[in-house]
Specification:
The chain contains 10 helices and 2 strands, in the order H-H-E-E-H-H-H-H-H-H-H-H. The chain is mainly alpha-helical and 234 residues long. Helix 2 runs antiparallel to helix 6, helix 5 runs antiparallel to helix 6 and helix 7 runs antiparallel to helix 8. It starts with a helix and ends with a helix. It is a multi-pass membrane protein.
């Protein structure tokens, strides 16, 4: 099935949005101030205004979305309970304790926290990095290029990671092997990228690193759901 792919694409939406924001903001940074109903503002702030206009109809759609897609399957975990035995309900503190006792869930969450830390640092410091020595790119060009590379690699890497996991048959063990291999390979490539002065080599290495990083989005989220019962997922 394509469950892993769709999970990865959903959870990749935030870093992809950040990347598109970097690219758009960088492209507009060289423009002069814009007049918004008599209010002078930097041109890059138009991104926020346009985003708000786009989000209004999308937010309104949330009011009419169904609250349950498959009500017959609620409360039953057909993976961990093939005979369809309903799982017990948990109080919030009981659910937290149950999750903390789940070694797979706990280790994956800790690893995913480190991954999020790295991805956040790349998103925050990346545009600044390319404008300083030894790369020394113009701010608008550097931010736009960095954002576009991140956005493209986010879509391609996430989709490839989900399809690869589904192709290999899914499962927690296969997904964790895929994540471990991707993270391990991305580390030396990232170190090389930070020590090059060539624009072409830097963005090539950056693309490879981000493809490997985003490759983990889908299998990680699939593991987090598969390693716990239906009641804890809800």
């Amino acid at each position: 099935g394509s469950k892993t792919l769709w999970l990865g694409l959903f959870f990749a939406a935030m870093p992809l949005g950040q990347a598109l924001g970097m690219a758009t903001g960088g492209a507009m940074s060289d423009c002069g101030p814009v007049d918004i109903f008599g209010w002078q503002a930097p041109s890059w702030r138009m991104v926020f205004l346009l985003e708000g206009c786009l989000m209004l109809p999308l937010s309104a759609l949330c009011w009419i979305l169904p609250t349950a897609i498959n009500s017959k399957a609620q409360g039953i975990d057909n993976t961990s309970n093939p005979i369809g035995i309903p799982e017990p309900m948990y109080q919030p503190h009981e659910a937290l304790l149950a999750l903390l006792r789940n070694s797979t869930w706990l280790l994956v969450v800790l690893g995913f926290s480190a991954y999020t830390f790295v991805l956040g640092a790349i998103a925050f410091w990346g545009p600044t990095l390319v404008t300083e020595p030894p790369l020394g790119m113009a701010p608008s060009t550097g931010a736009s290029t960095f954002g576009l590379v991140t956005a493209v690699c986010g879509v391609v890497g996430t989709a490839a990671g989900g399809m690869l996991n589904d192709y290999c048959g899914g499962g927690t063990k296969r997904a964790l092997r895929q994540v471990a291999l991707s993270m391990t390979l991305s580390f030396p490539l990232g170190l090389l990228a930070f020590h090059t002065s060539s624009h072409g080599l830097f963005f090539t290495l950056l693309a490879m690193v981000q493809l490997l990083l985003f490759n983990t989005q889908a299998p990680v989220n699939a593991v987090l759901l598969d390693c716990v019962g239906t009641t804890l997922r809800n």
